[in-house]
């Protein structure tokens, strides 16, 4: 008979648990510090005006312009589902005027911001980590530092602010597709009077909903940008590190979006 298997040491699990939270706390502090430095780059030049305009335009094109078809299609599907299905149910109980309130709650306030952010994360978040990681593997970061340039400004600022601008534009496209496109396509399946839909939507929409949804978009963009840049800059000198940083960064951004959305929703309904 072999030696008996030793009992699990509770201190080992406590130590692993403690190390995990220490590492998580250090990562959170690092991302927060990077966020502050990126936020401080607002309006700071890192070269000629032509170079700055080119860098920002390139990031907005990559993150926003190339991604608008999938965002518009997703908004159209969501708006069509709400307008066609829910309107049919509300007509049975003669409460068609509530369709505007449902559009405000579901599209503008709750699902619109988080779905737009998730689509951008799936399409561009991981790609941003890979792009920055490859630049570090190719020693481009060292070249910029030897030239006396700050990599956080030259590399991070255009991506950080470009993501914020792109996400705000894409959210507007999502809302337009969900409400206008959903109504137009919904006419093929059900009779919905435009004046009644538009009047109920405007009556339900208020400045509080606009402020909450705008705040969500801004916080989502800033958190995604900071996390993607942090994990991209954290890539080591081998390709395995790039794969690990990409997966960890995507998961961290997804968790951050979920926590921020839950927190803002709780604040919205408690205040």
Give a structural overview.
The structure is a single chain. This protein is mainly α. It has one domain. 83% of the residues lie in helices and 0% in strands. It has nine helices and no strands.
Brief summary:
This protein is an all-alpha fold. It has helices at residues 10-39, 49-65, 68-92, 99-137, 140-146, 151-186, 194-204, 207-233, 239-270.
List keywords for this structure.
83% helix; single chain; 271 residues; mainly alpha
CA-based gyration radius = 23 Å
Number of helices, where a helix is a run of at least 4 consecutive DSSP H or I residues: 9
Give the end-to-end Cα distance, rounded to a whole number of Å: 66 Å
Shape: globular
Arithmetic mean pLDDT? 80
Proportion of beta-strand residues: under 5%
Instruction: Give the low-pLDDT segments.
Output: none
Count of beta strands: 0
Helix- and strand-based class? Answer: mainly alpha
The helix/strand series, from N terminus to C terminus, equals HHHHHHHHH
- How can the largest sheet be summarized? none
Helix content: over 70%
Count up the domains: 1
